[in-house]
Amino acid sequence: QVQLVESGGGLVQPGGSLRLSCAASGFTLDYYAIGWFRQAPGKEREGVSCISRGDGSTYYADSVKGRFTISRDNAANTVYLQMNSLKPEDTAVYYCALSLHTIVVNRTTQVDYWGQGTQVTVSS
To answer: Could you say which DSSP state residue 40 is in?
Structure first.
């Protein structure tokens, strides 16, 4: 049974940092594409970052390049999203997402499994 459990969200001031974790179970993490999406109130869910199946290449949305870093710990079967220099516009619910059938996962149509989400609020 596939499960994705996020943690690490919270309230942080602009310019601050957070690290999100996604603990995966029921499958071997490095065999599949896994990534992070976010959804702000009144907006569509969007891809933030992902690690590809196979060579583990990383991808980032333009809005987070240079500030966010995705990584994967295969031994722990966990993927992380380090978020630095956070801005109020980063406020959203962040979701971990898994694709069983595509090389990357940066579109909602590619996602086979979602985590429950974790709230990130950037505010002074």
So the answer is: -
Query: HSE of 72 in the Cβ direction (CA atoms, 13 Å)?
Result: 23
Q: Which two tokens stand for residue 10?
A: 């919270």
Instruction: Tell me if residue 29 falls in helix, strand or coil.
Output: helix
Whole-number pLDDT of residue 28: 87
47: tokens are 């891809």
- 35 pairs with which residues across the strands? 50, 97
Element (H, E) at 78: strand 78-83
Tokens of 43: 């907006």
Rama region for 18: left / alpha / beta (φ>0; ψ in -120 to 50; rest): beta
For 81-106, write each residue's pLDDT tens digit: 999 999 999 999 999 999 999 999 99
DSSP 54: T
**pLDDT of 29 above 90:** no
Residue 27 is predicted with a pLDDT of 87
Strands 68-73 and 78-83: antiparallel
The structure tokens listed for 35 are: 């990534």
